[in-house]
Amino acid sequence: MTAGSARRATIASALAVLAAFTLASFARASGSDSAPVSITLLPDAQMFRPGAGQSVAQANCTICHAADYVYMQPPLTDVQWRAEVMKMKTAYGAPLNDADVETLVAYLVAQNGKK
Amino acid sequence: MHTRLSRQTFLTGAAAVAGGIGLSKWPAAASGTGTVTMPFANGARTLATYPQKREMILLTSRPVQLETPFEVFNDGVFTPNDAFFVRWHLSGVPTTVDPQAYRLNVHGHVTNPLSLTFDDLTKRFAPVEVNAVCECSGNSRGFFDPRVPGGQWGNGAMGNATWRGARLKDILTRAGIASGAVQVRFNGLDKPLLPQTPDFMKSLDRDVANGDDVIVAYEMNGKPLPLLNGFPARLVVPGWFATYWVKMLDDIEVLAQPDDNFWMKTAYRVPAAPCGCQLPGTKVPTVPITRLNVRSFITSVADGATVTTDDIRSVRGIAFDGGSGIANVQFSSDGGATWKRALLGADSGKYSFREWTASFKPERGKQYSLQSIATAQDGSTQPATLAWNASGYARNVIETVKITVSP
Fold it and tell me: Which residues fall within 8 angstroms of residue B136, CB to CB, at 6 or more apart?
């Protein structure tokens, strides 16, 4: 860096500092506060475990959420899991075939169920 | 205060000169080897460090939900941004957000539709600050007995922050609410992955939306919001459950009729009865969840801890309610048989956590059931038994912390 460019850089920095102070007196949320922010998320922490119906769960549930949504639940009854499956199908639009409902309910009960 | 903030702006300005105003790219999330086990069935959790966050309890990975480790609440009444809980409903959460491209559209039943830039939001409206608790409707759901399906949170789906932003009322005034408007609906940048999945939107009655304390916040504890907490701006509805605090808010629609979208009509509803409760297995009339109810927690000692008489000479905790303010907190060391008044800490506002302290001199070799009960300025207090409801919302039963004092 030449003396000239260093001096220009110093002047530019000084002006930037002055500008920053001037801005600060009017509005704080400025400058780098409005820079884009980008993050990277973790991959799914859990996968559906082997069992009859695993492929149905994989194909239908993981479109919208990771398998941990199933395994964090308390053990649920057959009736409770059926209610969850039907909520996903009717309220959230999971593309689950009618023929696969009982397969999925049985799988969920086997994975995380109670009597 | 002003000096500190000016310095902060100076530093970020200087950094911008040095590096150019570029993309703020954070290290990828990392799942650590640490685990914790919540005290209920299927309570095993891994700890994970997400961008802009410290190590937190990973409830779910997609959509991501992170719980604040409870010991954070003993560090002070304001919850650090990097420890603040995270809850998303839909997997289509943008992972890059550019405030320059951001627009907040205000439309519907208005006379002057707006499309505000981030600069408009921060510079064209008088900034206001409010200290307020943000609590998930389902905070503490994991402790429901009998258990209910849903996000199985411990007590860490809550936090308290200083929120700074533009008053919603000022934005609505500029847009000109047309006569006949009844509600205001809020939508964020997050989107469902399937077209048939209802987009996450929440609505407030017009008079609530026009409240002086409701703001579109672009700062949290003096800093931009972490992306996972709703950068660049989120709705802050002090005293109301977090479901209304729509993150990455980019759309405000004034409605001429009550909102009947799924997230209002079907989800986030509580029993209409004054207790907010129902018997397991029954179906009851429901209403949308609204205000926080009064709660208190012991933060200085954990349930199940073994302590020495040197460790413990007092017990500390926090209390909050839906905006009337905390009137008093009582402390019991004998499971609620006898109570004594705790000393309240500094008042940071009626929507904030309020610290409390009670002296406690335990004897060696004994076991104690520690409890606290808060009473709010509006006279409401905490029930001795859980107001059970099928969705696991609004738990505010008196909590118990059992400790053993070593011989």
Answer: B85, B87, B151, B153, B157, B158, B241, B242, B243
3-state secondary structure of A108: helix
Give the confidence band of B243 by pLDDT, cuts at 50, 70, 90.
very high
A68 touches chain B (CB under 8 A): yes
Write down the residue that tokens 């570029």 correspond to: B22
d(CA B325, CA B67): 25
Mutation site for B-interface testing, chosen from A11, A23, A30, A37 by largest number of B Cβ within 10 Å: A37
CB B201 within 8 A of CB B184: no
Q: Are strands B326-332 and B367-376 parallel, antiparallel or unpaired?
A: antiparallel
Quote the minimal CA–CA distance from B322 to chain A in Å.
29
3-state class (DSSP) for residue B344: strand
What's the gap in Å between the CA of B224 and the closest CA on chain A? 6
Residue B206: strand, helix, or coil: helix
Helices (H) and strands (E) in chain B, counts: 5, 27
User: How far from each other are the two terminal CA atoms of chain A, in whole angstroms?
Assistant: 76
What 3-state DSSP class applies to A102? helix
Contact predicate B130/B238, CB 8 Å: yes
Q: Considering only CB atoms, which chain A residues are within 8 Å of B194?
A: 63-64, 92-95
Give CA–CA dist B347/B126, Å, rounded.
25
Helix (H, G, I), strand (E, B) or coil at B72: helix
Residue B168 three-state SS: helix
Q: Is B69 helix (H, G, I), strand (E, B) or coil?
A: coil
Q: Which residues of chain B neighbour A77 with C-beta distances below 8 Å?
A: none
Q: Which pLDDT does position B26 carry in this prediction? A: 64
In the prediction, which pLDDT does B20 show? 36
Strand runs (DSSP E) across B136-214, as ranges? Answer: 158-167, 183-188, 201-205
Task: Note whether B29 contacts A42, CB cutoff 8 Å.
Answer: yes
Residues B56, B35: contact at Cβ < 8 Å? no
Q: Encoding tokens for residue B404?
A: 């053993």
**Rounded distance, CA A1 to CA A9, Å?**
10
What does the pLDDT look like over B295-318, one tens digit per residue? Answer: 999 999 999 999 999 888 899 999
The encoded tokens of residue A35 equal 């820079």
CA distance to partner chain B, nearest, from residue A63 (Å)? 8
- Strands B158-167 and B215-220, sheet pairing: antiparallel
A36–B58: do the CB atoms touch at under 8 Å? no
Q: Please tell me if residue B92 touches chain A, with a CB cutoff of 8 Å.
A: no
Task: ipTM value, please give it.
Answer: 0.90
Q: Does B71 touch chain A (CB under 8 A)?
A: no
Query: Which DSSP letter does residue B61 get?
Result: E
- Which CA distances in Å does B211 have to B126, B175, B208? 15, 16, 5
Question: For residue B223, what is the nearest residue in chain A, using CA coordinates?
Answer: A33
